[in-house]
Amino acid sequence: MKFRGKIVDVGCLNNFTRVVNTISKLTKSCILRLTNDRLYFILSDKVASGGVAMWCQIFQGNFFDEFQIEGVSEEHNEIYLELMPENLSRSLKTAQNAKTVKIKLTMKHCPCITIAVELPSLSSHSRIVTHDIPVSIIPRKLWNDFEEPSVPDFDVSIYLPVLKIMKSVVERMKNLANHVVIEANQNGEMNLKIDTDLVSVTTHFKDLGNPPWVEEGTQPDSFQIRDPAIMAEARIDIKRLLQFLAGQQVNPSKAICNIVSKKVIHFVLLHEDVSLQYFIPALA
Q: Could you check whether 2-146 and 156-281 share the same CATH topology?
């Protein structure tokens, strides 16, 4: 197996760094899947068992000037690696003023993602800073554990408010409760609610808009709520919600929340270069 990539454009490097920084805020460990045309960051905890799940994909052509991969076979030209995204994030912090960044799969004392950062220098010779990030290679027989999650048959789909505003609200609520209820309807209305023995607080958002699933013919068959004013809701861990909101650096052009009543909250962040899905299971 071989992999090597090269980033020269500063804007592309900054965008890639923001994606990695976001992933590092969401999980301590994840799977990096490499294919000919895409990179995927995957967290596949079973939502049904109370874990969160994440699926982030980027098109390598929007970031890399050079990109070569030789997977496990011609038939399966892919590579699956387990790594700690925080280590990747730290390595890229040294590359903010880099002339080039080269990333490749190497074998040192163990399999590594090696990042070589070429920094500008006052002399005629460039300075090279190298980082070796230990990884584990996932065998082919386990790849099916990391398939793209299916979009749930949601009851309501709604555009999120400005994420910074939502984050500010949730930060205040976190000091009052451990859980938050997210409810929304097909009239573009969404509420964040906490309810404890001592306090009840609700923040209302209106005129958010709803994604045009019906017009596009992609509305799930089991779409349950017919009256657009009826709220669908799910109660989730407020720390997980805040972790998701606080980690965002991808500046999405669209941010969507899909609610499966009392089961799961499914967030979708869309950018021209990146798509990120994040699943938070509902609490009883």
A: yes
Domain boundaries, the chain: 2-146, 156-281
Q: Count other C-beta atoms under 10 Å from residue 131's C-beta.
A: 18
The pTM assigned to this predicted structure is: 0.88
User: Does 3.70.10.10 match the CATH number of domain 156-281?
Assistant: yes
How far is residue 222's CA from residue 240's CA, in Å, rounded to a whole number? Answer: 27
Task: Give the side-chain half-sphere CA count within 13 A for 106.
Answer: 16
Cβ distance 266 to 152 under 8 Å? yes
Q: Of 24-33, 46-55, 121-130, which range is least confident?
A: 46-55
Q: Where do runs of H (alpha helix) occur along the chain?
A: 10-26, 85-93, 163-174, 213-216, 238-246
End-to-end CA distance of the chain: 45
Listed range (142-151, 152-161, 183-192, 231-240) with the worst mean pLDDT: 142-151
Tens of pLDDT, residue by residue over 100-158, are: 999 999 998 899 999 999 988 777 777 899 999 999 999 999 999 888 888 778 999 99
What is the residue type of 152?
P
Annotate 260-283 with three-state secondary structure.
ECCCEEEEEEECCCEEEEEEEECC
If you count DSSP H runs as helices and E runs as strands, how many of each does the chain have, helices first? 5, 18
Q: What is the pLDDT of residue 214?
A: 46
- State in words which class domain 2-146 has: alpha beta
Taking every pair of C-alpha atoms in the chain, what is the biggest distance, in angstroms? Answer: 70
Residue 197: both structure tokens together: 């023995």
